[in-house]
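Researcher: We're teaching a course module on how sequence relates to structure. For the next exercise, students receive a sequence and then see the predicted structure as tokens, so they can try to spot secondary structure elements on their own. Here is the exercise chain.
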Amino acid sequence: MEQKSPLGIALIPVFVLIGLLLFNVKYVFQDGALDGSNQIILMLSGAVAALIGIIRGVKWENILEGIGESIKQSVGAIIILLLIGALAGSWMISGVVPAMIYYGLQILNPSYFLPATAVICAIISLATGSSWSTTATVGIALIGIGQALGLNQAMVAGAVISGAYFGDKLSPLSDTTNLAPAMAGTDLFTHIRYMLYTTVPTFVISLILFFIIGFWQDGGAEIQNISALNSELEGTFNLSPALFIVPALVIGLIVKKVPALPAILIGALAGVVAALVFQYELVMNLATEIGDGGFIGVYKVLVNALTVDVVIPAEHPILVDLLNSSGMAGMLKTVWLIVAAMIFGGAMEACGFLKSISSALLNLAKGTFSLVATTVGTCLTVNITASDQYLAIVVPGRMFADAYEKQGLAPENLSRTLEDSGTVTSVLIPWNTCGAYQSGVLGVGVGAYLPYAFFNYLSPIMTLIIAGIGYKIKKIKKA
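Model: And here is the predicted structure for the students to work with:
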């Protein structure tokens, strides 16, 4: 049973986690930290939390149950992640991603590519209500286009994530956009309208920053090689605008409120069908290379694309990197990271340490600004310790609802702050489910894209500015 602990004791596992992670990433493994070392550190930190909890009288069965419940909450994300790996493989061999790259190279220019990327992802995410689906579809293609244009992949990933989370945040189809007002006690569309005051200015500032850094991106010598790159794409794949039916199908299913799991599975299978229809010759060539040009060989190639790998032969150095996918197997390190993070978060929750940390933060709230700032701090703390964006909305939402009411603040103040600080910052933490997912899908580490995810870290700052100047802080109308 969850119990409250002294703050100093509750923070010990957090300090252990942060200290070991900093040492691990900065001094030892650097970019290879996600290969396994960070996972074991999360588990060891969870063990520290469990040990302290047992010493303080928490039963091992309760800790194990808490860890199990925590992992259970991430099952949906894990399955989606595996299916995204399958979708990436099938969309590669079907020519969907290469077609996106091919046509994108003809219309996008390095000088405005970054803001255009943010806007494209914002539109798709707004329509689908899913930042995850956006990054897994157009986001992957935009990373490839940016690489072909000679742009820094971290910059492109930052633009993809900024746009995807802007759209997700304002979409009535988004789960977090529905969850936040439910926790705060307001209705969906009041919540969305009230978010506009912080979200739109933040996105405009982000676009300006992307224009500024994009202005200095001329692509260098790579631009001169675009024609050669496109020629090889044309020679390798049967490219046609009809291939866009596949991603359009997925987006359409999500807009029609089909759950993400079946929508992505259908998208992956549609990619397999497209491979047989549009890239049959390529599939047959790959089957012959593995020693069987018949039905069994074709079957092996398609199943391998979904599960373990697909490597399309290429000569252009950029295409050598682009035209391959590891399917579901490529997501296993990220799945491992999520499970390890849930072990830590579950142990912290079961031992009452999260409650202690949150309560200490709540005691800091004395006025409107300090209440908003404390909410922001609590959301960030839960994102770091519990490693889940939903908990970063639910836990502070339950904690602060009465505090906002006592200070005469309308619930939409709370719901907006939950989204501005809970939803969007989850992707900035490597061991959070969102950070692990996005870095795994886009192939860019959280530490690399974080400086360019302008929208995500400017959002809580904008919330604090709005609260500090007292603009659009709605009060409860007295009867």
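Model: If you want an answer key for the exercise: The chain is about 75% helix and 0% strand. The chain has two domains: 7-74+332-469, 76-330.
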